[in-house]
Write a structure and sequence with these properties.
Blueprint lengths: L7 E4 L8 H10 L4 E5 H7 L1 H11 L6 E2 L9 H20 L4 E4 L11 H22 L2 E4 L16 H11 L3 E6 H4 L5 H12 E6 L1 E2 L9 E2 L8 H11 L5 E3 L12 H12 L9
Parallel strand pairs: 1-2, 1-10, 2-3, 3-4, 4-5, 5-6, 6-7, 7-10
Antiparallel strand pairs: 8-9
Length: about 280
């Protein structure tokens, strides 16, 4: 059975050992034309070289990962990072990304004011919006599992994300990830609340039992997430956007030959990226 992969992309972190040209050619070699670009890989290769290589290879970009963390105590360093993130928005637009994932970092080291840091990140989004509008790009808010709230990201639920979009408008969008949100009793209702237009991209991977580390995501089908259920829900609400395979895996997939990871990833994800899953 032939599957439609036109909406399928691989997030570069899945094949962590590949540099930018390796990933572009490696994905294309196996019939995947979508690549979610990572900031460090792009800057290592160069913004203009990345843009040219993507264009010449016929690749499309569902999203760009990600902004620099903004968890600095020092106000001058915070402002410097804010300016850095404005440049990231510009550079992401240059390589054809329609949106950039906004990741906050956890509360600054030595502080315990989660509420205050969330408020500061709210204001930071407000400052970044102008640049996003200027370069024609959206800011993608990815709610990340609350176990990461202490050191990686303080936007942790779909409800928080939808509330931010209600306030700031459609310059923001949702980067939804089953790994981060499958546990949330409100996830499905918040996907319906978002509707098809707010969801910028949808990440696939799986939750392993037991989970051995914070970077131990499973390949689709190896864990306990009901991927087919979420695909049916997305079809039901009329979502027409991309699907990405995104795996952080320091104990398994990052140790494998990336060609093998891509091949297996395509096999596992193919039933859930095209026609309605049965």
């Amino acid at each position: 059975m032939e599957h439609d992969l036109s909406r399928f992309a691989i997030n570069q972190i899945t094949t962590k050992s590949w540099n930018m040209p390796d990933a572009i050619e490696g994905y294309r070699r196996q019939g995947v034309s979508g690549i979610a670009v990572w900031r460090d890989k792009m800057y290592e290769y160069g913004v203009k070289r990345t843009a040219r290589h993507l264009r010449d290879a016929g690749m499309w970009v569902p999203t760009f990962c990600a902004t620099a963390w903004m968890n600095q105590v020092d106000e001058d360093k915070f402002r410097s990072t804010l300016e850095e993130n404005k440049r990231v928005l510009c550079d992401a637009a240059e390589v054809g990304a329609p949106n950039v994932v906004f990741v906050t970092g956890g509360p600054p080291q030595g502080t315990k004011d989660l509420h205050g840091f969330r408020s500061k990140m709210h204001d930071a989004i407000g400052e970044l919006i102008g640049t996003a509008r200027d370069v024609g790009i959206k800011i993608g808010i990815e709610p990340i599992h609350p176990m990461y709230a202490g050191d990686r990201h303080v936007i942790n639920t779909m409800r928080q994300t939808n509330d931010l979009i209600d306030e700031f408008g459609d310059i923001l969008g949702i980067v939804a990830d089953v790994y981060h949100c499958w546990w949330d009793p409100e996830f499905e209702n918040e996907l319906r609340r978002a509707g098809p237009d707010r969801i910028l991209t949808f990440h696939y991977c799986d939750w392993l039992v037991p989970t051995r580390s914070w970077f131990d995501r499973g390949m689709v089908g190896d864990g306990i997430i009901d991927i087919a259920r979420y695909k049916r829900l997305l079809d039901e609400i009329g979502y027409k956007g991309p699907f990405e395979l995104e795996i952080f895996s320091d104990l398994d997939w990052w140790k494998r030959d990336p060609d093998e990871t891509v091949r297996i990833g395509i096999e596992r994800c193919a039933p859930f990226v095209g026609a309605i899953a049965k």
